[in-house]
Specification:
alpha+beta; 4 helices; 8 strands
Length: about 170
């Protein structure tokens, strides 16, 4: 049963989150960011094809949990996304989804506005990225084990010290 679950998860991730290199999607998501917000997510409620203002990268937003990111936090998040050695690509894991947060970033590139969505699954150290704009959305996933402490500091500054204990 575990083998079947692992195979199905790998197939799901590769089909849903695309085959674009996560590093290029991370860089694209962090380019031209002018504002952003953070919200807690319901990790067990994901719809991969949903573009809905109540979802980030397909994950349902916990009602009332959204907060704007101040410029310093936004700059730190962009810096974190661009870290070359902070991520692991080409791997699939089987994890229980539990604590998740998401970021919605507004980007301005050559006068055009677009959105990047980032869902973060902390128990698995998984990052799901979706860049929306003209044409098809670009999606990718990767793991952030090497830079977990940096992201945890950003999230704690944005949501407060007790964000993990909130239902």
């Amino acid at each position: 049963m575990r083998l079947l679950y692992g195979l199905l998860l790998g197939l799901y991730l590769s089909n849903v989150w695309g085959s674009a290199p996560a590093s290029s999607v991370r860089w694209q998501a962090s380019e031209g960011v002018v504002q952003g917000m953070i919200a807690r997510l319901v990790a067990s409620d994901v719809q991969s094809d949903a573009h809905d203002p109540n979802r980030i990268a397909g994950f349902r937003i916990v009602p009332g949990s959204g907060r704007p990111l101040d410029p310093d936090l936004l700059a730190d998040l962009v810096h974190w996304l661009r870290a070359e050695d902070g991520f692991i690509e080409g791997l699939a894991r089987r994890c229980r989804r539990d604590q998740a947060v998401g970021f919605r970033l507004q980007r301005q590139i050559e006068g055009q506005m677009s959105t990047a969505e980032i869902a973060v699954d902390f128990p698995c150290n998984a990052l799901f990225l979706r860049v929306l704009g003209p044409g098809s959305p670009r999606t990718a996933y990767c793991f952030f084990d090497p830079s977990r402490a940096d992201l945890l500091a950003i999230v704690t500054r944005a949501l407060g010290k007790d964000w993990l204990e909130q239902p």
